[in-house]
Write a structure and sequence with these properties.
Layout (H helix, E strand, L loop, with lengths): L5 E10 L2 E11 L4 E5 L6 H9 L6 E6 L2 E2 L5 H6 L2 E4 L11 H12 L4 H11 L1 H5 L10 H13 L5 E5 L7 H16 L4 E5 L2 H7 L2 E6 L2 E6 L1 H5 L2 H6 L7
Parallel strand pairs: 3-8, 3-9, 6-7, 7-8
Antiparallel strand pairs: 1-2, 1-4, 4-5, 9-10
The protein binds adenosine-5'-triphosphate and magnesium ion.
Length: 240
């Protein structure tokens, strides 16, 4: 088997005295969209914060392309090419689309900023149209696209996406879903935390089901769709 892009092994994470993630083990294959699926409070955001070094694990190992990243600071992890699209998106509302992108470009230390901007504008034409519009005036779907575009600037080895479809209308969810298919075709590696099982099972190659801070099941879309127990117990989808 080839080395996965990302691997977690025996990861335990705490908020103060509260034990949140229990011996978490998961992998993200290079060039795949891998999903972390679970309900509210299951531990998805905590897992993503743990990978990014924002809430470092108390024990266990996290490796990226075979090198250990657990114990590194968030900015060091970012420099390895791991980019976070946070839940709630983290766009600066008073700044324009382009200013938000340029700010991210500075941090990404891209050698050719103009080419990077063109790259994401080509991927998201709606952002090109709205380049002078302030963040606060964008729709939920446009904001999410801006957040994803930001993560694609510069050298990106892995994108951590935390519930990109949260609070979006079904039509906008479709747009984000198509966006994910597109960046997947471009060869991106993505770890996608989601509650929206339908969308995750469509776009994802592989899935880890998390509940109560523990991985309950790992498999491909077919193996999950065919498992009524997982669908109902962990994903809140009623049986067909
Ligand atoms: N800063 C914190 N301090 C203490 N406990 C926290 C903190 N943040 C989250 N938790 C707890 O950790 C558990 C996992 O939360 P987490 O935010 O990782 O869940 P989630 O799967 O991302 O949920 P959601 O789908 O609602 O975003 C929850 O029980 C939550 O109450
Ligand atoms: Mg969350």
């Amino acid at each position: 088997m080839t080395t996965p892009a990302l691997a977690l092994e025996g990861v335990n994470t705490f908020y103060g005295p509260s034990h949140i993630l229990f011996d978490l083990g998961l992998t993200v294959g290079e060039g795949t969209v891998t999903c972390l699926l679970g309900r509210n409070g299951a531990g998805k955001t905590t897992a993503i914060r743990t990978i990014m070094g924002l809430t470092p694990p108390r024990s266990g190992a996290i490796t990226f392309r075979g090198e250990r990243i657990s114990g590194l600071r968030p900015w060091q992890i970012f420099r390895r090419g791991i980019k976070l699209v946070p839940q709630g998106r983290g766009i600066f509302p008073p700044l324009s689309v382009e200013e938000n992108l340029r700010l991210a470009l500075l941090r990404a230390e891209a050698p050719e900023p103009a080419a990077e901007l063109e790259k994401v504008y080509a991927l998201f034409p709606v952002l090109a149209e709205r380049r002078r519009q302030r963040g606060q005036t964008l729709s939920g779907g446009e904001l999410q696209m801006l957040a994803i575009a930001r993560a694609l600037l510069g050298r990106t080895g892995l994108i951590l996406m935390d519930e990109p479809t949260e609070g979006l209308a079904p039509l906008v969810v479709r747009t984000i879903q198509e966006t994910l298919h597109r960046i997947k075709r471009e060869g991106a590696t993505v770890l996608l935390a989601e509650q929206n099982a339908r969308m995750a099972l469509d776009v994802g190659d592989w899935h880890h089901i998390i509940d109560d801070g523990r991985i309950r099941f790992s498999g491909d879309s077919r193996s999950i769709l065919g498992n009524d127990e997982i669908m109902t117990q962990y994903l809140g989808v009623s049986p067909r």
